[in-house]
Structure prediction request, 361 residues.
Amino acid sequence: MYAQTLLKPDGRPLTLYSRYPIPEGIAAVSPSNEPVEANPHFRWHPLRGEWVAYASHRQGRTFMPPPEYNPLAATINPKFPTELPPGEYDVAVFDNRFPSMTLQAKNAPANIVETLPAKGICEVVVFTQDPLASLGSLELSHLELLLEVWADRTSVIGSNPEIQYVLPFENRGVEVGVTLHHPHGQIYAYPFVPPVPARMLECQSVYYQKNSSGLLQDLIQKEISDKQRIIYLDEEAIAFVPACARYPYEVWIAPIAPAATFIDLTEKQRQSLAKALKTVTLKYDGLWHRPFPYLMAWFQGPTDGKPHPEAHLHAQFYPPYRSSERLKYLAGTELAAGMFANDALPEEKAKELQAVSVNLS
Prediction:
């Protein structure tokens, strides 16, 4: 992996990554030369026992720009700069211009509930310079690079003592609120472990203390033995519709042997995870022969400097459709009670995905 870090005119860092040496002389660009002056804050939700972020400046963020202006494409006309410079590289990472958290946050306003400056990091990860690409269309070596990029960002961001958890994710499709369709994801880095991964890590920790083995590690072995819901499998990685899926087309991707974070992956694990990732996204798009929307989130161990043998890096895909024309809306029981109701058996949806032929070459 090759990397080059630059500074944008507005003061934000930009890191370019590539499978090949990056030419010298690339100059960082930005849609605006004005420094980002976001000052978000947290408010404590006493009934849920969790923080809520407030970032009113995000009301003005870029929303469905015209096709002729893609802020995530490489700049063509210097008079109308985008977020990325022209040049030879594969992946780009930069600080979000409209962050929900920033390390520069300060002086949270007083309120009847506890408040704190929303200190954290929000990065944009542009997967490729090709605006028409998708994860499924990228070469396996490009996906392996992306996994290395996530590892590097976890290492760089996680070294900051104010950061406790690094969450890479991708929102894909207007159905999940995407406003920029160039293939990209984001990384949110929090000053605490957020509620969802915290709950999963708690369950994993209790299981590990009792069994001296990983909860997801053992669940994966059960899925392999059961054989019904597997979407991809080799010696190093697996993709499957979990027996406990909350969404009809939910899929998990994981290394078979536990790795707490992206940093802990071996080269063979990255190669296999790239194949699993390409397989899943190609099967999604091939299911109804159209781009398939989803939220993809990668869960890993905290970056608190402590060992986390209970943690098992993995991705969870949450697709919003329950059939080709029907969305699965989160409503009363999901949002109010926190208990999901699935209209389809995981085994049935796994068969649909298994039947989609894909070509990894």
Summary: The chain has a mean pLDDT of 95.
